[in-house]
Amino acid sequence: MMILTTSTNNLSAQNATTNSSYAAGSLMDSANQTTSELGQNASTVLNKAGEEVGSTLNQLGQNLSDVGSEIGSEILNETKETAKKVGTGAKDVLSNISGEIKEGITGK
Fold first, then answer.
1. According to the model, what pLDDT value does residue 27 have?
2. Mind giving me the DSSP string for the chain?
């Protein structure tokens, strides 16, 4: 009877050790899997954030380019209008001079 009790106790202890070993291994597997999933999730989040930043910078660059084009167009329009005014003024001055010269010649 004593042998049977010892064998049963040894078997129970062995089962407890085996179960404990499986539990620890399972826990480590879960921890490793969770860590791996966290790494993948963090990588995905960072990639998406990088894409968003890149897209935003691209839009900002396009907006700045559009603004630059608009400013350039406005400057050209203003330059054109100013040139027209200068040309008209110069034409008037030359016309006046020409008229005075004609009057001077015909008046003598």
1. 60
2. -HHHHHHHHHHHHHHHHHHHHHHHHHHHHHHHHHHHHHHHHHHHHHHHHHHHHHHHHHHHHHHHHHHHHHHHHHHHHHHHHHHHHHHHHHHHHHHHHHHHHHHHHHH-
